[in-house]
Amino acid sequence: MTIEVDYRFPPDIDPHKQAKIIAVGQTAGTWDAKWSHREDTLRQHLAEVIEIKTDEGGYHLAKIRFPEINVENDLASLLTMIFGKYSMAGAAKVIGVHLPESYGQRPKFGITGIRKILNVYDRPLIMAIFKPALGLSAADHAVILKQVADAGLDIIKDDEILGDLETAPTLKRLEACRQVLEAIKQQTGRTVLYAVNVTGKADKLIEKARLLVKEGANALLLNVLTYGFSVLEALAADPDINVPIFAHPAFAGAMCASPDTGLSYSVILGRFMAHGGVDAVLYPAHYGNLPFDPQEEKKIRDSLRSRNVFPVPSAGIHPGIVPKAIADYGDDVILNAGTGIMDHPNNPGAGVKAFFEALERVKTGQSFTLDTVPEGALKQALQKWGN
Amino acid sequence: MTIEVDYRFPPDIDPHKQAKIIAVGQTAGTWDAKWSHREDTLRQHLAEVIEIKTDEGGYHLAKIRFPEINVENDLASLLTMIFGKYSMAGAAKVIGVHLPESYGQRPKFGITGIRKILNVYDRPLIMAIFKPALGLSAADHAVILKQVADAGLDIIKDDEILGDLETAPTLKRLEACRQVLEAIKQQTGRTVLYAVNVTGKADKLIEKARLLVKEGANALLLNVLTYGFSVLEALAADPDINVPIFAHPAFAGAMCASPDTGLSYSVILGRFMAHGGVDAVLYPAHYGNLPFDPQEEKKIRDSLRSRNVFPVPSAGIHPGIVPKAIADYGDDVILNAGTGIMDHPNNPGAGVKAFFEALERVKTGQSFTLDTVPEGALKQALQKWGN
């Protein structure tokens, strides 16, 4: 089995020279006569330049095939090989990574598993984010959760910048929110997932994740790119972490936003996440409030779904975009709204209701123009955020 | 205590608007009247725009002060706060991070500790890299190590892409090399450090690091940026990891090479590493074979030294650059050569001897022009690589 990687170089770069540097310099390197008795083994580790072409804009594309024996079936060693030292060599961007099916991990739950936990099979899932992001007490979180869970919300998550802070320690938030989730379950039979943000130094983070699950957490949130792919992979492989893991894309722009360096968003948030064992991945929706290329977004969605990982378009999501989102995504998607639920003119519960009204109107083919929408949560949302 | 971060925006970006988005959006966010009873707490978490100015090139610089209570005294939560979601917002680069002295960790050994282990106080240290990078057996590593250690080498490390592979498993390499190191110690009293590359999923990596140390490893190498800062911080905080940790910069270019996005090399390889508890940091020397800005390199060196972390300029280092390196760095530096030792025309041992001849000539003020250098290892190196 082999790994193929697509590198893109600006017009002024010699792609033949650079492809050769990558194929040799990122694998065995060169050797001289004194290693001739190891020739066969050394050759097995060399990468191979498969194809070099130039696109209409003058950009060069090189496809390089790496031996799978060079890496450890994980993402960190893969990144080191394909773009470790070479990332510092000048203008080159990794725009495609093709991995064997067996490479890395698959989600423990993913789309089918999360649907089963929630017992919801026939519509997009609705997800909210606790806001304000910092400064609320654990009890405040429970109050918000009750409002949105009563209104029918499927999933809620911590804001990605809310760590284990003195003002609302992670375990206290879980303890306060778990009581709400248990009450909802008893009263309605519904499960609502709360993805608790898990943070800390790698060893403590993993211990904390186990403790959270033991204490009743039914989902986790991880800032995969600031804590490290190796941390995600540890959690995903851990049999004690038997709850869905949600990946937040924080820091993705640092490695993906540049046109000529780094890696494409679709590589990091799509391909890599899909082989990392995570269950759902947040990423910016192209019609949201972060600039994002629709083609890249489509690739992320498709990479994730191809391995049963739930796509979670985020940022600037509000009830008015539901028709567009369903047209773009179909049903196998989690629509994730922060202020689009929490800042509803009425209250967060009404924010959730507005999403469900919107889903119902799409399902029954009804218009979203203001004059046709009856008074209520959706109309208030449309008046505030448009469509 | 506060954290100050310098963001740089291209001329066409409104820095006032963006600075405000960062100060609010990367901290508490906005809130409405229903949280007025939490006003005081929420305000404590907000960041503050301290200064906005425009440089001669039209680039805007914004300095933003973040409350330390928002983060967990570690690098991963810091990255999430200062450049998490915002990294995806468009063109902005983090060019400076100013942390309280007490933030993060200090090295267990660093410059003073590594010198004490080696009992070498009055000259730069010489470091080599096992080459070819992949495809050698554990026994091959021991053969190379004997050659360079006998010649007086201070430190050797695995290539950063050499993981725990079937052809030469990490523990087997250690086992084979430890015998050489022990023999040198017995025969000469000298300690030679071997920084073993530690890899794997975060939990297994930490376990493996502990095992390696228990089995006699006297130094570790970590690809901090592909495995995650949180993994470095776990190793650095672990009392069982009582050996120096060397950080490799693999993948730094993915987050630092772009002019208008990501973070400066000096932030990632300098400031962040200096607060991460690592003992020595490799980075590209500006006169090496990777393109690198001398000013950024100077900042890295100074940030590291300010917290007793050993700077390790690398890539393209060979005996001929020793005069330049000493002029640039003085003595408190580790000169790290891969092919510049391993590919010496004679043999790797001669590569090491060439470095020591070079150090001696600089110390005694002798010329490096070919006709003045006597026959021997240095002359052969100069003939091959110049100066």
Automatic annotation (TrEMBL), chains A, B:
<dbReference type="InterPro" id="IPR017443">
    <property type="entry name" value="RuBisCO_lsu_fd_N"/>
</dbReference>
<dbReference type="GO" id="GO:0019509">
    <property type="term" value="P:L-methionine salvage from methylthioadenosine"/>
</dbReference>
<keyword id="KW-0028">Amino-acid biosynthesis</keyword>
<dbReference type="GO" id="GO:0000287">
    <property type="term" value="F:magnesium ion binding"/>
</dbReference>
<dbReference type="InterPro" id="IPR000685">
    <property type="entry name" value="RuBisCO_lsu_C"/>
</dbReference>
<keyword id="KW-0456">Lyase</keyword>
<feature type="domain" description="Ribulose bisphosphate carboxylase large subunit C-terminal">
    <location>
        <begin position="307"/>
        <end position="385"/>
    </location>
</feature>
<dbReference type="InterPro" id="IPR017717">
    <property type="entry name" value="Diketo-Methiopentyl-P_enolase"/>
</dbReference>
<comment type="similarity">
    <text>Belongs to the RuBisCO large chain family.</text>
</comment>
<feature type="domain" description="Ribulose bisphosphate carboxylase large subunit ferrodoxin-like N-terminal">
    <location>
        <begin position="7"/>
        <end position="96"/>
    </location>
</feature>
<dbReference type="GO" id="GO:0043715">
    <property type="term" value="F:2,3-diketo-5-methylthiopentyl-1-phosphate enolase activity"/>
</dbReference>
<dbReference type="Pfam" id="PF02788">
    <property type="entry name" value="RuBisCO_large_N"/>
</dbReference>
<dbReference type="InterPro" id="IPR033966">
    <property type="entry name" value="RuBisCO"/>
</dbReference>
<keyword id="KW-0486">Methionine biosynthesis</keyword>
<keyword id="KW-0479">Metal-binding</keyword>
<keyword id="KW-0460">Magnesium</keyword>
<dbReference type="GO" id="GO:0015977">
    <property type="term" value="P:carbon fixation"/>
</dbReference>
<protein>
    <submittedName>
        <fullName>Ribulose-bisphosphate carboxylase</fullName>
        <ecNumber>4.1.1.39</ecNumber>
    </submittedName>
</protein>
<dbReference type="InterPro" id="IPR036376">
    <property type="entry name" value="RuBisCO_lsu_C_sf"/>
</dbReference>
<dbReference type="GO" id="GO:0016984">
    <property type="term" value="F:ribulose-bisphosphate carboxylase activity"/>
</dbReference>
<keyword id="KW-0413">Isomerase</keyword>
<dbReference type="InterPro" id="IPR036422">
    <property type="entry name" value="RuBisCO_lsu_N_sf"/>
</dbReference>
<feature type="domain" description="Ribulose bisphosphate carboxylase large subunit C-terminal">
    <location>
        <begin position="110"/>
        <end position="295"/>
    </location>
</feature>
<dbReference type="Pfam" id="PF00016">
    <property type="entry name" value="RuBisCO_large"/>
</dbReference>
